[in-house]
Specification:
Layout (H helix, E strand, L loop, with lengths): L2 H17 L14 E2 H10 L6 H10 L5 E3 L5 E4 L20 E6 L3 H7 L1 E2 L6 E3 L3 H9 L4 E6 L1 H6 L5 E2 L5 E3 L1 E2 L4 E3 L2 H6 L1
Antiparallel strand pairs: 1-3, 2-3, 4-7, 5-10, 6-9, 7-11, 8-9
């Protein structure tokens, strides 16, 4: 199977494990898990030819570590990014002093007014490194980079969580805790 096909499978898994499990008739449990055998049966019933070895390959080689198996490798879930209500069981953690959020330049004015909002997702996603944040922002056009004063937010009672794939999560980032970085920094990476 080539990389294009692997990417297609990964995107499809993201869709059903994060947003629309009903699309193939599966139901996620409270923590977002689904039985691997059931997932494979339902995916294959909908025209994708995926076996357990291929599923393991997609999970293990996904650069962003978007998916995780349980210890027994009998259940699978998305690591974060859900728009469906699940409790991933992450415990609050102390964030580093600064985190970063990448977005498209067209969103900057709105973010400066309202801050970062989770919108249709369960959390706002933040990165501990600039390169990843810029890559995320590039998906939305010309990238813009925000520095998040995470330590200050935490001291003011905001909770942060670290997902299995090392994405920092929080409910919202008020505009007072954001600093728009020089866009040349974002475009040089």
């Amino acid at each position: 199977m080539n990389e294009k096909e692997i990417k297609h499978i990964s995107k499809f898994l993201s869709l059903i494990l994060r947003h629309q499990p009903q699309l193939i008739g599966i139901q996620l449990d409270e923590q977002g898990w689904v039985n691997v055998d059931e997932l494979l049966k339902r995916v294959n019933d909908h025209g994708l030819d995926i076996n357990l070895a291929l599923l393991k390959h997609v999970v293990e080689t996904n650069a962003k570590k978007r998916f995780a198996f349980d210890e027994a490798k009998q259940r699978i879930r998305a690591s974060q990014g859900h728009s469906v209500n699940v409790d991933l069981g992450y415990q609050p953690e102390t964030p580093p002093a600064y985190l970063y959020h990448g977005t498209g330049e067209k969103s900057v004015a709105g973010i400066l007014k309202t801050g970062l909002e989770k919108r249709g997702r369960q959390h706002v996603h933040l990165s501990s490194d600039i390169v990843t944040a810029v890559q995320v922002g590039s998906r939305h056009g010309k990238p813009a980079l925000f520095k998040v004063m995470a330590e200050e937010m935490h001291k003011n009672g905001y909770s942060f969580y670290l997902s299995d794939n090392k994405v920092w999560l929080t409910d919202a980032v008020p505009a007072d805790f954001l600093q728009l970085e020089d866009n040349t920094k974002a475009s040089q990476l």
